[in-house]
Amino acid sequence: QTPLNYLFPYLEYIVKIGWTPDSKYVWVQLLSRQQQHLELILIPVENFCCEPYNSNPSSPESASEKHLWKCILNKSSKPIQVIYAERSNQWINLHDLLYFLEITDEYVQFIWSSEESGFRHLYLITASLEVKPPSTQNGLCTHSAFCDDENSVDDNMKARIVKKAQLTSGEWEVLGRSIWVDRQRSLIYYKGFAHSPLEKHLYVFSMLQPEKKRLLTTPGTTNSIEFNEDCTVMVKTFSNTNQL
């Protein structure tokens, strides 16, 4: 209902995108040109139900209603949500470590990784969601975050983090490719370099006791891992300097 570069003026790259498990939202990672500002947002599916809009500058409509975008009027439509934001003085390394644990009308809980400690580690994040639908004027939709004051845009589009808990820590990194979650047993599997920067190992910990991680692969090897969806079957490929 509103172009992303209007809501997020810094936006240069849409770097990753996907569906939430309940199929009610599209999640998107946005990145600035300098790669120093990243935000994770949720776009409700109904926000894509828009009529074509004439953006020609000579159009009388666009000149008089520059911040109003035609859409199918839906008073139950939810606004775009920012659920996480990160800034860096250097640059932000991208990763694939995003796993949604729970999404309700009031909040979203997910696993994410960040290098804010100096090393990439896993975090459990809970963010509150706004349930108020966008305002309407004469059949036109406006987003609550858009206005002529850029400061107001920033204030309205901040992530509302309720809780942020660090799940892994230390002077080593979690590998940024995959995590696997056994929801039934509350177990999280991940790959990292806790034992050696030269060896990729598989670890597991319980959500109930995240400080107690367990090594599942053999020291002296580096490992490639794949799980099935419910984490009941694992395929491991390992190698070292003497064996493949």
Outline the structure in words:
The chain is mostly beta strands and 244 residues long. The protein is built from 3 helices and 17 strands. The strands form 5 sheets. It has a 4-stranded antiparallel sheet, with no helix packed on it. It has a 4-stranded antiparallel sheet with strand order 6-7-8-11, with no helix packed on it. The longest helix is centred in the middle third of the chain and has 7 residues, at 150-156. The radius of gyration is 21 Å and the shape is globular. The termini are far apart. Residues 61-69 and 136-154 have low confidence and may be disordered.
Give me the secondary-structure category: mainly beta
Which regions have little confidence, pLDDT < 50, spanning 5+ residues? 61-69, 136-154
- Biggest sheet architecture: 4 strands, antiparallel
Radius of gyration: 21 Å
- Helices and strands, in order, run as HEEEHEEEEEEEHEEEEEEE
Distance separating the two termini: 53 Å
Shape: globular
How many E strands?
Answer: 17
**If helices are DSSP runs of H or I spanning 4 or more residues, what is the number of helices?**
3
Helix amount = under 10%
Q: Can you list the strand order of the major beta sheet? A: 1-2-3-5
Strand content: 35-45%
How much is the average pLDDT? 83
